[in-house]
Structure formats: C-alpha cells, structure tokens
Specification:
- By secondary structure, the chain is of the alpha+beta class.
- Helices cover 35% and strands 13% of the residues.
- Strands 1-4 form a two-stranded antiparallel ribbon.
- Helix 2 packs across helix 3.
- The radius of gyration is 27 Å and the shape is elongated.
- It starts with a helix and ends with a strand.
Length: 266
C-alpha cells in the first residue's frame, strides 16, 4: 500500500514539474514582451478607461505613447497636468499643458422655464424618452432630464436639478463620457476658465423658441454684434462661442435679452 502511495506521489510530482517546465518554456518562446516604458506610463495613468484621450482605454493610450513618438502626452483629461508631467518625464519630452475642460449642459429649460407638453410615467431613461416620445418638454432640443449622463459620470459631478442635468465643474474631470451618453447632444466639453457659455441648444426660430422655453436663444444676434473679441456667431438661429477668441469679458451675458448666456466659473 505504501509503495502505491509513493508511486502516485512521484507521478503527480513529475507531472507538476513537467507542467511547470512547459509553462516556463512557453513564457520564454511565446510570451508577449511588455515594453518597460509602456508599463511605466501605464502606472502614471489614473485607470479611468474613459476614452477621453481618443483611445479605447489607459492600456491602449500607454501602448501608443510607448510605441508611437508622435502621440501627444497631454491627452489624459482626468489625470490633468500632474499626469502629463509624469508621462513627459518618462518619455523624455517637453511637457505641454492641457487646457482643463469641464462638461457643460447647454440647456436652461428647467421646470420653471420650459413648457411641458405631457406628463410621462415610465422607464426613467433619456435614451428611451428620446426614442419613444421625444421627451416631455415642448423643446425637442433640450435636456431630457432622466439622468443618463449622471449614471456614467465617474466623479459624481452631475445631478438633476428641476428637471435639467447640472455639472459641478469642480468635480468634473473632463472625460467626456456624459457627452457621448446624451441622446440629445446637449452636453459638450468647454474650458474651465471663466468664459461665457450658452444655456440653449434650440435651432428653431425665435418666435417658436419663445413659445417653448423662456430661457431659449432667439437668435437676435445682439451678442454677436456687441462681442469685442468677435468670439460669438449665430449659426442656424443659435449663438455659438469660439473659445479660442473668448476673453471672458461677460458683455454678451449682460446684453442677452433672454438670459441664455452666463459665465462659467469653475
């Protein structure tokens, strides 16, 4: 009996040793070699895997930085300047500061200002509301208010206030997940610097807009005519801001007759 046990033990040990040798050989001859620079860069990234850098995730961005010299090192919005500086030090390149961005909801049509066409009770989803009935508001361009953007925010920077999504720029990392999630496309990334923002996305004519929302842009072009930096243009009946030109003077905010422009103070 003892001999049988010893034989079984030796066979098991031999099989284990053989498997270990095979695994070592497989790692030597077939294993994927990791670029040490890629590993160092990956350790610098926050691991949000948000895709704001334009790559599928932190691993893909680290690989691109390590293997493609032309890849910009300042694309990680959540990591900010500290991450950029650390990556540039590893790569031995000069650090280029990335402009801090924050998400902003271009809709001011809350429950006090927008006209509601119906009361909806059902699946609380912006995507479902957009597909099934277009949203409860008369304005088809505004925030649907169900909070799909808040569900994907990794920094808890978005909440629903009076039926409209609001972003806290102090918490927002500028990853852009909410921008991609919004079915009505009312969210965009804007500079965190104190500059003007428009709280409307409606492209209809002013007379129509006034019937739908008290806060809607009527395309009067007053902001465009009075902007000292020529940073505002009215396109398809809606004011748009060129942030490369905006100096944050606030004149457009003071001149807007309907109050659909405000200053973003992060």
């Amino acid at each position: 009996m003892t001999e049988v046990i010893m034989s079984a033990t030796l066979v098991t040990a031999g099989l284990g040793l053989a498997c270990a040798i095979l695994l070592v050989l497989a790692d030597i001859f077939m294993g994927v070699k990791t670029n040490p620079i890629e590993a160092e860069v990956r350790d610098c990234l926050p691991g949000a895997n948000c895709g704001a850098c334009g790559f599928s995730g932190c691993d893909a961005y680290a690989k691109a930085l390590a293997e493609n010299p032309g890849t910009e090192a300042n694309l990680c919005r959540p990591g900010g300047e500290a991450t950029t500086a650390a990556i540039c030090k590893i790569l031995g390149v000069e650090a280029e500061a990335a402009q801090p961005l924050t998400a902003f909801v271009h809709c001011g049509g809350d429950c006090h200002k927008q006209v509601y066409k119906e009361i909806y009770q059902g699946l609380n989803s912006c995507a479902a509301a957009k597909m099934l009935y277009g949203g409860k508001g008369a304005c088809l361009y505004g925030c649907l208010g169900c909070g799909d953007c808040a569900t994907v925010c990794t920094n808890d920077a978005i909440c629903i206030v009076d039926g409209v999504a609001k972003v806290d720029p102090r918490k927002c990392g500028g990853c852009g997940l909410c921008v991609a999630k919004c079915p009505n496309h009312v969210i965009s990334l804007v500079p965190k610097a104190e500059k003007a923002v428009i709280t409307c996305s409606n492209h209809e004519k002013g007379a129509v807009v006034r019937k739908e929302c008290q806060n809607g842009c009527i395309g009067c072009m007053k902001c465009q005519k009075n902007c000292p930096a020529e940073a505002i243009t009215v396109v398809n009946a809606l004011a748009t801001i060129d942030y490369d030109k905006c100096i944050g003077c606030g004149k457009c905010v003071a001149d807007c007759p309907v109050g659909c422009l405000e200053m973003l103070n992060a």
